[in-house]
Structure to design on (244 residues):
């Protein structure tokens, strides 16, 4: 697999398994489940352009929250078939301004290629009424087992993204995301991998269910030992989910 691992996340606006912050200090439990035609994360497929079943659970107290989220995955040249994300953080709002800081640990079951990594992120947002906007910075953290050969491990990078969500009549919203990501490869395969990823989608609420149709893509460059390899990927993704 080309370890750029990029995808679509619009923090505070529209992501699978987002946590709703409580205005009062009370413990709340929630869960979510979704089915997607293609698990795309920061512009690149994580399920080999195939169906994915996803779900998670959250606990929150005031602005504090923690949760778990999982999905099936399918990567070339790896043995893993599932991704599990463990996360915790704090988020709140002051009038129309919102902020969130969190940590996510990405775990890939059965992996032998050192794909596991952590990520810390800071997101700020503002709701203008006619449009809500946000900006996010994230930094990858190497959490591979120290017993593994560091030369074969993958060094996660950092990136940023901006997002906007426009509410429309009939419980519809129009959402857009643009981001940039850069990783560092490893000692045996020194690279400078970076890509610009984007998505534009529309979400419609049907009772307790949300249906999202999104066009996602990425333009990336993999520079290895002085050689550049450019590439592109684009997907039309349908996702239906609910939370309870």
């Amino acid at each position: 697999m080309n370890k750029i691992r990029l995808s679509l996340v619009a923090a505070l606006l529209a992501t699978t398994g987002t946590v709703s912050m409580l205005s009062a200090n009370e413990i709340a439990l929630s869960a979510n489940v979704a089915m997607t035609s293609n698990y795309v994360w920061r512009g690149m497929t994580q399920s080999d352009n195939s169906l994915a079943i996803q779900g998670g659970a959250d606990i929150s107290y005031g602005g504090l929250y923690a949760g778990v989220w999982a999905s099936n995955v399918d990567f070339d040249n790896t043995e893993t078939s599932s991704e599990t994300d463990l996360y915790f953080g704090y988020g709140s709002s002051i009038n129309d301004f919102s902020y969130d800081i969190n940590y996510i640990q990405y775990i890939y079951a059965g992996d032998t290629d050192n794909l596991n990594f952590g990520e810390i992120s800071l997101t700020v947002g503002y709701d203008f009424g006619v449009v809500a906007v946000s900006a996010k910075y994230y930094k990858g953290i190497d959490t591979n087992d120290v017993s593994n050969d560091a030369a074969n491990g993958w060094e996660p990078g950092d990136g940023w993204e901006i997002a906007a969500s426009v509410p429309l009549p009939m419980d519809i919203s129009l959402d857009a995301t643009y981001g940039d990501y850069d990783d560092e490869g490893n000692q045996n395969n020194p690279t400078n991998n970076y890509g610009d990823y984007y998505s534009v989608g529309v979400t419609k609420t049907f009772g307790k269910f949300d249906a999202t149709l999104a066009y996602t893509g990425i333009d990336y460059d993999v520079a290895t030992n002085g050689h550049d390899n450019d590439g592109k990927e684009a997907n039309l993704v349908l996702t239906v989910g609910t939370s309870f």
